């Protein structure tokens, strides 16, 4: 099995197999390119998915399937053995068949999708790496700096402090530069 970078394998289970026993007697590796999005509960079995392709939730790709760059397999599709899904096409159904061509906007979405999920995974990893004490401290901060309506505060004569900004790890959001202490 070969997996490239910036791959989104969804949030729930997936099954990725290398086919060793089949009618042709060939060993079929599963090869997944860069910036690929694979939806929840998808099954990839002895197939190739090129860079910047999209496999929907619950889709099944059988032995010898080849998904080209910027191609999309719809959710729930069953792609039969040795099927090639060409560049820029959407395939769906059981068995999967050509549905339509992708728009330029959809191809741009596919290119960005895996990167978005990869960044989100980093945020989740940073949150899950926090200690119990850090979590409790953030709870206290949230409570202390909970916002109320400014008009309500002014009627009571309350002036609130400005809450501190929480700084995410610098690799989470590449477009934001973290503040230094």
TrEMBL record:
CDD domains reported for this sequence: LbH_gamma_CA_like (cd04645)
Entry-linked Pfam families: Hexapep_2
GO cellular component terms given for this protein: mitochondrial membrane
Highest taxon of the lineage: Eukaryota
Subcellular location: Mitochondrion membrane
Membrane topology: Peripheral membrane protein
Family: Belongs to the gamma-class carbonic anhydrase family.
PANTHER family per UniProt: DYNACTIN SUBUNIT P25, GAMMA CARBONIC ANHYDRASE 1, MITOCHONDRIAL
This protein's name: Gamma carbonic anhydrase 2
Lineage of source species: Eukaryota, Viridiplantae, Streptophyta, Embryophyta, Tracheophyta
């Amino acid at each position: 099995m070969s997996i490239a970078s910036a791959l989104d394998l969804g949030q729930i289970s997936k099954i990725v197999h290398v086919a060793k026993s089949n009618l042709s007697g060939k060993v079929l590796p599963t090869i997944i390119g860069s910036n690929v999005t694979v939806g929840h509960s998808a099954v990839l079995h002895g197939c190739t998915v090129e860079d910047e392709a999209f496999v929907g939730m619950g889709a099944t790709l059988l032995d010898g399937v080849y998904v080209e760059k910027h191609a999309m397999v719809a959710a729930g599709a069953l792609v039969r053995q040795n099927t090639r899904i060409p560049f820029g096409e959407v395939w769906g159904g059981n068995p999967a068949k050509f549905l339509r061509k992708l728009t330029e906007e959809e191809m741009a979405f596919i290119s960005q999708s895996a990167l978005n999920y990869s960044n989100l995974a980093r945020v989740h990893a940073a949150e899950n790496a926090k200690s119990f004490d850090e979590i409790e401290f953030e709870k206290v901060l949230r409570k202390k700096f909970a916002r109320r309506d400014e008009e309500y505060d002014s009627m009571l004569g309350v002036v609130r402090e400005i809450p501190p900004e929480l700084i995410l790890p610098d690799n989470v959001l590449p477009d934001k530069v973290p503040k230094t202490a």
